[in-house]
């Protein structure tokens, strides 16, 4: 396993306070490493913000954001004992908890639900002056697919194959991180990029501030085939004005974007950390706009696996709507 880089500083305004928080907790007896995605992407910002909140409000814990290869890697890092928590999607969460699919042979029940943050929405982006008008037009083109270890790359492969386009045969696929794809598209080294993430995504905001680009519609017949493959996929468009110069909804589909945690993390630590985050949502909204819509009403949306006992305990106390029905349905 490639060594993971540890980051104790947070972005921009979080840098100083995050560093001080970590420095003040060198004697912490519980580490809470949160796997995210490549540094600069959305989930890393989320992990950095959560770490800052936990370090300020929960004694005896040292939390830190971990820059990783992405959501697939995060689940494996959790199973390997390299991180205690990590962002992923609802499809991988179900398979990992039940030891199914790629996780067959693992011990079931190691991965549990913690928080549901915001839907992941598929983006297919091209330059505004491109002759690419649809997914089918990507045949013979240079397409950025995301980096190995991330779910976005797997979803990009699935999207293209559903459209009858085989990577390496019908188009030239590039397996690189989102920030690199953004630069390559802007520099003319790519004809399109595909990424499945929670908008607004900072690299896409940067791209649109520097170049005129378009986000392609994904036809309903294609998204229907993808949704039929797994209940984890749901219909959902990219709302109008998510990005600058995007006046209309863009047809797409979604996955749940969730924070998972190992079952062996102490219940009290998870309870206090959950409480700290939920009571500091205003601060989290300054970390990333996605958190403006996070609330107790949607904090368990999309989960089909049991919650960690510490999270469940807090959600019951906070009166999360439907919590008892949910707990019964997943066997909590």
Note down, in words, how this protein is organized.
By secondary structure, the protein is α/β, with parallel strands linked by helices. It has 2 domains: 5-118 and 257-330, D-Maltodextrin-Binding Protein, domain 2 (3-Layer(aba) Sandwich); 120-255, Periplasmic binding protein-like II (D-Maltodextrin-Binding Protein, domain 2), CATH 3.40.190. It contains 12 helices and 13 strands. It has helices spanning 14-23, 42-57, 71-79, 90-97, 151-162, 178-186, 202-210, 220-229, 267-278, 281-287, 309-318, 323-330; strands spanning 5-7, 30-35, 61-67, 85-89, 111-116, 120-127, 142-144, 172-174, 192-197, 213-215, 234-235, 253-255, 257-262. Strands 6, 7, 8, 9, 10, 11 and 12 form a 7-stranded mixed β-sheet that branches. Strand 2 (30-35), helix 2 and strand 3 form a beta-alpha-beta unit. It is globular, with a radius of gyration of 19 Å. It starts with a strand and ends with a helix.
Structural class of the secondary structure composition?
Answer: alpha/beta
Q: Describe the main β-sheet briefly.
A: 7 strands, mixed
Shape: globular
Strand tally is: 13
- Low-confidence segments: 1-27
Strand content: 15-25%
Radius of gyration: 19 Å
Q: If you consult CATH, what is the topology of the largest domain?
A: D-Maltodextrin-Binding Protein, domain 2
Q: Helix and strand succession? A: EHEHEHEHEEEHEHEHEHEEEHHHH
Brief write-up:
This protein has twelve helices and 13 strands. It has helices spanning 14-23, 42-57, 71-79, 90-97, 151-162, 178-186, 202-210, 220-229, 267-278, 281-287, 309-318, 323-330, and strands spanning 5-7, 30-35, 61-67, 85-89, 111-116, 120-127, 142-144, 172-174, 192-197, 213-215, 234-235, 253-255, 257-262.
